[in-house]
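User: Hey, quick favor. My workstation is busy. Could you predict this chain's structure for me?
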Amino acid sequence: LNNFVYTLISITDELKSHEENLIILNKLGFKVNGEYKKCSSMEEVIDTCHKFESMRDELEYEIDGAVIKVNSIAQQNILGSIAKSPRWAVAFKFKAKQAFTSVNKIVWQVGRTGAVTPVAELEPVLLAGSTISRATLHNYDEIKRKDIREGDRVVIEKGGDVIPKIVSVVLSERKKKNKPVKQPKLCPVCKSPLFNPPDEVAYYCENTECSAQIKGRIEHFASRTAMDIEGLGEALIDIFVDNGLLITYADIYYLNERREDIIAIERLGKKSVDNLLNAIEESKNKPFDKVLFAIGIRYVGAGVARKLADHFNTIDGLINASEEDLISVPEIGPSIAKSVNQFFINKINIGIIKKLKAAGLKFELNKSDSIQVKENFFTGKTFVLTGRLNNFTREEAGEKIIRLGGKVTTSVSQSTDYLIAGEKSGSKKNKANELGINIMTEGDLVIKLNNTVN
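Assistant: No problem, here it is.
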């Protein structure tokens, strides 16, 4: 293990500057990265960052940016920190690295909603510290727009140095045998006909018993933002579905009856099986809105699930609601209302709900599920969240606001009180500026949340 040391903390000595600390660390024998520079202006800072970017390919280690820090320790202490990062340091991200590779094959994957998504299988290539062999193509329209074909030489990059994507095709190297990709007419897994709804680019497999959809629905149900069943990940779900142990997500709560069958599966020991069963049992304590989100109704994210749970209080109230009743709920539009209504018309879904009820899951909103708070900064105000947050996901932030009496919407309008802007905020921030809407940073939000809860 090799590392660079960047920080010196002393309880007894008064440290003056970050630069001085690096010098002291070096004298003490610690390995300090020599590629740093103290700058006297923002122009010099930007020039230095660009210089570092030009050096990145010459270094013996991978970097994706530089960190700009306030040099004075006294000023660092005044600025302080938020939960996960200091206010006195900011990252300067470099342009995404690109690489050339070839498209070996384009395959089609089926998600939990039945959406069929194209994925490019690539000739493995090293890019920004990892070997890339696959990249999502999003949908058939994207393939046509970029004219991506099997056998093509392509340029790839990592979005945010994380997610690989195909940027363009090297047309000068295209071979005559590389033919345009055709949209499949049948599901690649179960061979059922595909359906393309009006005004949508996606194609769907409508066979709800398609094994790929079954695995996707169970994976969503068990995920961290839904029922949060630790240990029940994609690999284990594949094994359980392939071995007939899971057909629907309701079957998860009856796996304790198949304990010996599970233990008999290769690679699964008694302790890991018992840990999984305990995690499944623990998930029964999740509140109604989490269960509602977990069952995977199309268009019903965590925020919508919370609104529906708050309005109807019980699953039976929601099942019996008409589309008109659903549309009467603030921020529930026709698409969501129709989707919810269609989900509960399906007798198979009702049977799964009954099975989950019998297993002991919560299908009504208890008073304890809602935090009772006095009037505070969030009460009665409307918020919009945009950009990437560091301390929590946008859904988690929205849930905290709602629990404190605020309202979260998806679009900026005259009725918006605050826009909470994370990293890489786009058009919503521009519109908020045009309308004169108050803009909060994630740091501002954290402070308001802490002040309200404390």
